[in-house]
User: Which sequence fits this backbone?
């Protein structure tokens, strides 16, 4: 059994167990040319997988699903040409002989790469060129706004919609997050649903961002959902993330009421 760290361009008869952490179409609208995935192996090594829109010896594409483990076999390895989603010098490209077979879970670990608020504020150049994760208690949420946006073919201004989400860690350090497009809709819908619930009693709301990027925005560094691989989870329930224990790590969780301006879909 191979590991992602073993991969080279020397051959194609590789076989690795991987978990799909993110799966998306490229392009996201219009005619799909390929699917892309960020996968991880049991050692926590990430790599991007490119699945061209073509026929395969054994059909597998429709069975792919985020959060599931697969045995990925027979593929090409190339130097990474993308924007380094997966922090790897290589990327995988599927070919006609490639197969992906569902297997049992190898570990419940999602191998998070959480960034600290100080790392965002003082980000090095390299940190602007790969994706990262962030987590914290929601402090505030802005109204929906729009970034000036020129639509390309098969695009709408949907991706220009954003909200500014501020989170804090258990030391009180804050990070500004900019949720664009689908992530914007997810944040607004889920946070407002929690806040409007009759059972809500100022309990902390936790936001987890996966595969976002450190970017400069309005004169400061933020974490932003600029890529199609970006995911956001409100009060996440992953097996390897103890939500209640995380909330208890805050010295005074009852003081963590969310400041939310009126959210308008202008």
Assistant:
């Amino acid at each position: 059994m191979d590991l992602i760290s073993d991969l080279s361009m020397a051959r194609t008869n590789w076989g690795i167990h991987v978990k799909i952490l993110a799966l998306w179409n490229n392009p996201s609208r219009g005619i799909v040319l390929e699917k892309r995935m960020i996968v991880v192996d049991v050692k926590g090594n990430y790599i991007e997988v490119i699945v061209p829109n073509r026929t395969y010896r054994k059909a597998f594409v429709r069975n792919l699903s985020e959060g599931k483990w697969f045995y990925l076999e027979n593929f090409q390895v190339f130097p990474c040409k993308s924007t380094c989603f997966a922090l790897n010098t290589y990327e995988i490209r599927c070919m006609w002989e490639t197969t992906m077979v569902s297997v049992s879970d190898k570990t419940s670990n999602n191998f998070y790469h959480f960034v600290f608020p100080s790392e965002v504020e003082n980000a090095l150049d390299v940190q602007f060129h790969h994706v990262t994760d962030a987590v914290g208690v929601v402090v505030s949420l802005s109204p929906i706004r729009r970034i000036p946006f020129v639509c390309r073919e098969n695009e709408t201004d949907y991706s220009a919609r954003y909200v500014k989400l501020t989170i804090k860690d258990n030391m009180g350090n804050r990070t500004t997050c900019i949720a664009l497009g689908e992530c914007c809709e997810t944040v607004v819908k889920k946070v407002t649903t929690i806040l409007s619930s009759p059972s809500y009693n100022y309990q902390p709301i936790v936001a987890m961002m996966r595969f976002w990027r450190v970017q400069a925005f309005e004169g400061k560094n933020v974490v932003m959902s600029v890529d199609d691989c970006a995911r956001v989870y409100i009060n996440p329930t992953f097996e390897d993330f103890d939500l209640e224990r995380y909330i208890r790590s805050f010295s005074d969780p009852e003081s963590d009421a969310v400041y939310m301006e009126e959210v308008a879909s202008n």
Observations:
- The CA atoms of residues 203 and 219 lie 32 Å apart.
- DSSP finds three helices and 13 strands in the chain.
- The helical segments are 117-121, 181-195, 243-248.
